[in-house]
Amino acid sequence: MELVQASINGNKKALEVLITRHQSYIYNIAWKMVLSPEDAEDVTQEIFIKVITNLSSFEGKSAFRTWIYRITVNYILAMKKRQMETIIHGFESYFDGLDALPDTALSILEEQELQETITDVKISCTAGMLLCLDREQRMILVLGDIFEIDHHVGAEIFDISPENFRQKLSRARKDLYSWMNRRCGLVNAANPCRCPKKTKAFINAGWVDPQGLKFNAHYTKSIYEIAHKSDESDCDKIEELHRRIFAEHPFQERPGSKKVLEELIHNAFFKEHYRL
């Protein structure tokens, strides 16, 4: 609360600390919601404009991060569709599209040389599965499963009861995990789709670039390492296996994050409004 009040009073350093402390979390949520790293940067900046312009309305009745998450959820659920959301239309067409890509077996040497690219394929492909859910389901699953937000906090963020939050999370899990069980080789060995076999097709389609990885880059830890709270997870063993696929995605620090911070701090409106 002290940092918030100092920011409202025009303390530039306090505002920088507030933004820096929460920026990566919001960016990673946005990244999961829109799939494009560039769009996620734009969404993050737009959210922080909302956060900063509404700082004076924060009353301290909940944790500051909970308050930011509420703004994040409301903004993302209401915003116009981003590019990848207009391309991915549902589970059936998504998995049919993957099946239509040619399989190319890699030699042992190729698999070793392309290991980082194969991981990029795995991350981008599974992240794309999230976009097959509608936005509310996607957001609830991202917060409740991947970032392991407590159901009571989730209920507060969405302004629903904890039981309703649990029910919505359960339905989102069922919709996503049932399709993965039927079509994804990562979770069911009976499914023929394999990341290494699809890697060359992803490269040829321009979806991954071995020389400029989009997803398997810009991180030091996974989301699992950042967010995992074993005593709060109520997943059964099967759900935990599915959840770990997404929770082990990188917790990304975009190279442009400092640029976003500078643009926010030096925005003419903020400089006037907060006397920075």
Mean pLDDT: 89
Shape: globular
Strand content: under 5%
Q: How much helicity do the residues have?
A: 55-70%
How far is the first residue's CA from the last residue's CA? Answer: 19 Å
The description of the largest β-sheet is:
2 strands, antiparallel
Radius of gyration, taken over Cα atoms and rounded to an integer in Å? 20 Å
State the strand order across the main sheet: 1-2
- Into how many domains do the coordinates divide? 1
Q: How many strands appear in the DSSP assignment?
A: 2
Number of helices, counting only DSSP H or I runs of 4 residues or more: 16
Order of helices and strands: HHHHHHHHHHHHEHHEHH
In short:
The chain is mainly alpha-helical and 276 residues long.
Structure description:
- It is a single chain.
- The chain has 276 residues and is mainly α.
- It has one domain.
- The protein is 66% helix and 3% strand.
- The longest helix is centred in the first third of the chain and has 23 residues.
- The mean pLDDT is 89.
Write the SSE topology:
Blueprint: H1 2-8, H2 12-34, H3 37-53, H4 64-78, H5 83-87, H6 91-100, H7 108-113, H8 115-130, H9 135-146, H10 151-158, H11 162-183, H12 195-205, E1 219-222, H13 223-227, H14 237-247, E2 250-252, H15 257-265, H16 268-273
Antiparallel strand pairs: 1-2
Core attributes:
276 residues, mainly alpha, two-stranded antiparallel sheet, 16 helices, 3% strand, globular
